[in-house]
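sorry to bug you again but im stuck and you know this stuff better than me. what follows is a protein written twice so to speak, once as letters and once as structure tokens for the fold. id like you to explain what the token line says about the fold, in plain words if possible. anything you notice is useful, everything is just below.
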Amino acid sequence: MREPLCAMQKKTAIMNYDDEIRLSQEKGIIDKSDIFDFRETPFEDLFDDYYRFCKEHLNNCLETYDLYPSVFIFNNSLIPNAKAQYSNDTFSIHINLGLFKKCVDSYLNNEELDDYLSDKYSDLLSDFDNPLTALAFQVSTQFTYYHEFAHLVQFSKVREELSLQERYDKEVPYDIEKQSLEINADSFASIAIGTHIQQYIKKSLGKNINQEKVELTIVLICSCLLNYIATFCDDVSDIYFKKYAHPHPFLRLFAINLNILHYLNQSEFFLDNGIEIRMNELFKRILDFYEDLENNKIFNTKMAVAMKFGPQIQEEIVAHLGNLLELKTDKYRDAIGEWNKHST
């Protein structure tokens, strides 16, 4: 799957990890001891594929979004985290080894998930050219990249020493502006992932496309993405609003899934094939399916506990998300506004 977010530009930017390391040192954006060199490691091919996917997109967007120079680097930290940064006149995306490994363990090497899906959805999976667990890994890691890329777009206006990490910090006080930036980046990444989902369904199902297969594909992929978002919070059962610099994962999953479903709902491809994306129904199916995965001990995030409280605080969720989405700032660029400007 590839995302046509940016027009093809001349490949003048680096596409070699040695050069990535060199530039990161020249610009002083990360200590050399913190850099993870994935080459000659057990996951070299996975890291290399991911690096090339992300770097190709980043290179293609340098001119469009005014992000030159940019660095994409892996950090050797085992904490599941990622970071977008502007420092020393350089944009950079940092992906922790721990986050990549977490995605490998949660999806790609999760035999329980693979067996569960194969047992319940063998007819659907027979249409795919890859296991759904591999697709879940791909979607989750790509979502990370698009989210961090959106932060770079936001930073491109102010160009000050800035960084935003994905894992929330209880020591950081409530910051509505930073929460707004996170939701804005989630919205950007959701649309990008929505295009991938459509492309994958189009490629995999082909003439076998029908309403149920499309819905099942969306539910399965979005459920795994839901699990991924829960990675960045220690206790997802404790729903909060006006705390910290990151919105609670339950609010994030609420916004992300609705954004993906809204994007797919507008798809001419599905309309032409007689497929109706019923947003409310699909959103409920995603939550129900994820709860089933937790009940079967395949995922253990306590998200099901948060889901039980969700209906009771729905008005608060909608109101808080509305405030975050509508918050205007002259300091940062609106990543969604930039998407709309450059996606034609």
Confidence is low (pLDDT under 50) at residues 7-12.
